[in-house]
Amino acid sequence: MIVIRPKNIDSEQKKKDYFAVVIPLLLLLFLFSPMMFQAKTSYAKTYTVTPKTKPCDNSKKNANYCENTRQYYMLRSYLNRIEKENGGTLVIGKGTYKIPNTLFVSSNTNIVLQKDAVLLKTDRGGPKLKPSYTVFILIRSTLSKNTAVYGGHEGEHDISITGEGIIDLNNIRASTPVIALIMGHNKNITLDGITIRNMCYGHMIEMDACENVSVKNCTFTGYTASGMWNKEAINLDVPDPDRNGFNATWSKKDKTPNESVIIENCVFDRLEAGVGSHRYTGNVFQTGVTIRNNQFTACQTAVRILNYKNVTILNNSFTDCAPNDRYPYSFFIAGAHGICFSGNRFTRCGVGKQLMQFWCNKGYSAGQDIYPPVTSELTQDEAALFRTNQAVECGSCKIYDCPYDVDFSA
After folding, report:
1. How far apart, in whole angstroms, are the C-alpha atoms of residue 273 and residue 218?
2. CA geometry: angle at 116 spanning 113 and 120, to 5°?
3. DSSP of 136-195, one letter per residue?
4. Which whole-number Å values give the CA distances from 287 to 209, 211, 294, 384, in the listed order?
């Protein structure tokens, strides 16, 4: 029997068949790979609301849903939806929104406050809804009542609040601090372009144990005297159980500092205090804080540096900052390790009192006996940078036991 075998396919034909299959597959991979690697952002939804928008869930069936609360429940319903969808954008349109209670924000959330959008803090809740005193807290609502959920920088992440809108604290004074934004154990947080105004008792931003935070192009303005004297618009603190610096139940109170914080191109206007800290934790440093290109006007204390490492204060302007009777200085430094203080201009600050109080080798205890007094470390090069600042019609720099000349007062 004769067997006829097929001829082997020659190498040229193999190449043609190979490219006929492989090339189209490569093209498909090239075209669809962006979707594969960016699925979360590509499919994240955007929701746009106005003061008249209804809740997207059954919030309106709540017994507390009324004229005082309906906009709060509406915003909460959309933030809860974004939490369930693992991310998204909430665009808050023009108009006034009454906020009697806290709005919780989860990871991968973008909040856009459009021009003339006003989130107005109120102290009137529903029939059974007592008002709380924070507008935003950066933790998902499903974990907000749990205990010791987050430590380190492992909390909610990749959150932004941007736009041209306003958070108005409405000069409310309560038994607890009234705060626009609390961030704790968060990472990759951006605030850009918003205005926070009319603070009384509290802070505008409470920042604890956060990493990679950017606050830029924002305005912080207006306060009613609290009698506390030390309430910063942006307060950097440490979750420290020994001195009760951060009270959130969901925080592990593990003494994690803030790291990599940039505050730039902002306006701080008519405040008790602009940026900084009024407490410290022993051997724990706010690290990598940059304060640059900001304007401080008519603040009693502009900046308060207390246990900071690798801190930059660069090219800011300070005008008409008048210290109060309790804190007789416009600018305060203690416990600084690695400081670039350069190119700042002071005009009519500390007149009759002090422009700057700088504690170098002499220890400063901040009125607390929990931890040993802090001291600053300063190199000769760092001291030379101090003298690049300018002071016009200002009070004196009071230097405590510094081996170098850092006095730039006129």
Report:
1. 16
2. 75
3. EESS-GGGTTSSS-B-TT-SSEEEEEEES-EEE-TT---SS--EEEEEES-EEEEEES-E
4. 11, 10, 19, 22
Give the pLDDT of the chain (410 residues) as one tens digit per residue: 444 444 444 555 555 555 555 555 555 554 444 444 333 444 589 999 999 999 999 888 888 999 999 999 999 999 999 999 999 999 999 999 999 999 999 999 999 999 999 999 999 888 878 888 899 999 999 999 999 999 999 999 999 999 999 999 999 887 788 999 999 999 999 999 999 999 988 899 999 999 999 999 999 999 887 676 668 999 999 999 998 878 899 999 999 999 999 999 999 999 999 999 999 999 999 999 999 999 999 999 999 999 999 999 999 999 999 998 888 899 999 999 999 999 999 999 999 899 999 999 999 987 777 899 999 999 999 999 999 999 999 999 999 999 999 999 87
> Nearest to residue 394, comparing CAs of 295, 319, 304, 343?
319
Q: Which residues contact 275 (CB under 8 A, 6 or more apart)?
A: 232, 233, 234, 236, 263, 268, 291, 294, 302, 303, 304
- The residues pairing with 297 across neighbouring beta strands, listed in sequence order, are 269, 319
Give the residue carrying structure tokens 């007592």. 130
